[in-house]
Design a protein that fits this description.
It is a single chain. The chain is of the alpha+beta class. It is built from 2 helices and 5 strands; from the N terminus they run αβββββα. The chain has a 3-stranded antiparallel sheet with strand order 2-3-4, with no helix packed on it. A two-stranded antiparallel sheet has the order 1-5. A hairpin with a 5-residue loop joins strand 2 and strand 3.
Length: 116
């Protein structure tokens, strides 16, 4: 997967988390909320049942709103860090490409075309 595709994927995940956070603000504080990690470990075997409740392994569970909001905050922080890391790497690659273009144009002049 290219860095640009990875950035788009992570930005979409961030957007989904923000949307979920907005939806949770409308939830009653005493209500239990179904929760599943955004990217569960392969061992947890997460599936969505027909009744729209989350299943991890052989267990269905719901958590208090405050706990879900805390876990959501942690997930959002991790996604933000990942987006920042991908953006930093992408900027570094673009800068390096720019420097290489300058060097190649200095050497070959207009006899090459590096623009895509």
């Amino acid at each position: 997967m290219s860095l640009e595709e990875d950035l788009k994927t992570k930005a979409k995940e961030r957007e989904d988390l923000e949307e979920l956070s907005n939806e949770l603000e409308l939830t009653d504080e005493d209500e239990k909320v179904p929760y599943v990690p955004i990217k569960p470990s392969p061992a947890s075997l997460v599936t969505l049942s027909q009744s729209n409740r989350y299943k991890i392994g052989d267990t269905f569970f719901s958590l208090p709103l405050a706990t879900v909001q805390e876990l959501l905050s942690v997930s959002t922080g991790k996604i933000d860090e990942a987006v920042s890391a991908v953006e930093t790497r992408l900027n570094a690659v673009r800068n390096e490409m720019g420097q290489l273009k300058v060097q190649l144009y200095a050497r070959f002049g207009k006899s090459i075309n590096l623009e895509t």
